[in-house]
Amino acid sequence: MSKPATKTVRYYILSAIGIAIMLFFRFLPPMGTVTELGMNVLGIFLGAIWCFSTVGTFWPALLALVLFGTSGLYEGGVTAAFTAAFGSDTWLFVLFVLAFAAMVNNSGASRVIANNMASWRFTKGKPYAVSWLLLTIAYIIAALISVTPGIVITWAILYVMCEGYGYKPHDKYPTIMVIAITFSALMGQAALPFKAAPIMYMNALSTATEGATTVSYAQFSIISIPMTYLAGIAPLLVIKFIFRPDVSLIKKSDFVFSSEETHFNKDQKVIMLFVAVLGMLFLAAFFILLFLPGLFTTAGGFIAWLGTIGNTAICVLLLVIAGFLMRKNGNSFVSLAKTFKDGIPWETMMILAFAVVATSALTNAGTGIKDQISAWLTPLFGEGTGTVLFVFLIILLSAIITNFIGNLVVGLMFVPIVVAFASSAGVAQNLVVAIAVTTNMSLFLPSGSPLAALLHSNTEWCTSNDIYKYSWPIVFAGVVACFIITLTLGNLVF
Question: What global pTM score does this model have?
Answer without folding.
Answer: 0.82
